[in-house]
Amino acid sequence: MNEKMNRMEFLKKLGLKGASLFAVYCTTSGLSSCINEPIDPTTPTGGTGNELSLDLSSSAYSKLNTIGNFVIVSSIVIARVSTSSFAALTQVCSHQGSKKVVFSSGEFYCPVHGARFDTTGKGLNSTGTRGLKTYLTDFQGTTLKVKL
Ligand code: FES
Question: Where exactly are the structural domains of the chain?
Fold first, then answer.
């Protein structure tokens, strides 16, 4: 084997393609940012591949101008927590995997069995003990970015 062949070229020569190549490459490279979740077609434009970018002046996301409201984008529940802060947590419940998490009364909640989580993803009751994955947010002007 050519010593200058990089890992990707080597895997391609083995005949691995598409998803299998992606999975092998991610596993072998140990990338912590390797996410294999599909992004739904409603992903907002304007962000990079590693973030969502939501324009709060648009009607699609203007709900987020009011404290206590939330939107769901690409299976992420994005909530307006205070005048200056947001929380973005996965919509997929850590209890039994239902994609039902919403934001209500200042906390994240799954109605299937009642799991509750605070805005940092920490579980607040026995069904929420595993916590929820959180995403960093950055708010500038009218643009809210969610780091994936
Ligand atoms: S699946 Fe959410 S509480 Fe059980």
Answer: 1-36, 51-147
